[in-house]
Amino acid sequence: MDLETGSDKSQYATLETIFKDDGFADFKWIAPEQIVVAQWVRMKCMFGCSNYGRKGACPPQTLAVSDCERFFREYSDAVVFHLRLQNDDPEERIRWYRETALKLVELERKAFLAGFERACMLLFGGCYLCHECTGERSLCKLPEEARPAPEGLAVDVFSTVKRLGYPISVLTESTQAADRYVFLWSTRLNDRPREWLGCTVERTQVHEIRQQ
């Protein structure tokens, strides 16, 4: 990625160092327009997911699909983190989700303090921070930590991470090893359109699109 100024390059390098120091070294930068948003994802939330209407960070308490697309267009940079869950004990899996989610929310805070004022983390699955969700965003016990999942904002995670060359598959058992993905939207307020650090998906083509 050819950044426009030395300070830009330094800030992005600082952000990558933060990721690695916090134990999240498996990540790739992606252009927001390369992230697939689809109506079918919302339909699957409504008809097929037990969290729908039961968790405060899940639909219908998230944005409409059209508003999700508008939200993503406000960013010029995003990061996809790849996490591997291999524990087959149900209680340990839930504990892993909760502990990892809190670490990722802290990572978002560090990105914010590093100068990325719009930093916003999208976590995996439904919110696992509390043992029992109130079901209402307004009644959330951890309102500063709760975050929606990419799917909750209509992101087609399967199609998106495949564009980056990441592995993902449908699990047939809840105890199977799983590839999990979270997204960090990280644009700084004074950023202009740019190419993306370490992005493996047609950086030149994306740059040309932005010049049109």
Major beta sheet summary: 4 strands, antiparallel
Taken in chain order, the helices and strands follow as: HEHHEHEHEH
Broad shape? globular
Terminal Cα span: 19 Å
Strand order of the largest sheet: 1-2-4-3
Number of helices: 6
Could you say how many structural domains there are in total?
A: 1
| Mean of all residue-level pLDDT scores | 83
Strand content: 5-15%
- Radius of gyration computed on alpha carbons: 17 Å
Helix/strand class:
alpha+beta
Percent in helix = 25-40%
Low-confidence parts: 1-7, 192-212
> Care to count the β-strands?
4
Overall description:
The protein has 212 residues and is α+β, with helices and mostly antiparallel strands. The protein has one domain (6-211). It has helices at 6-21, 39-46, 65-73, 90-113, 157-163, 203-211; strands at residues 27-30, 78-85, 120-122, 178-185. It has a 4-stranded antiparallel sheet, with helices on one face. The longest helix is centred in the middle third of the chain and has 24 residues, at 90-113. The relative contact order is 0.23. The model is unreliable at 1-7 and 192-212 (pLDDT under 50).
Summarize the structure.
The protein has 6 helices and 4 strands. With 212 residues, the protein is an alpha+beta fold.
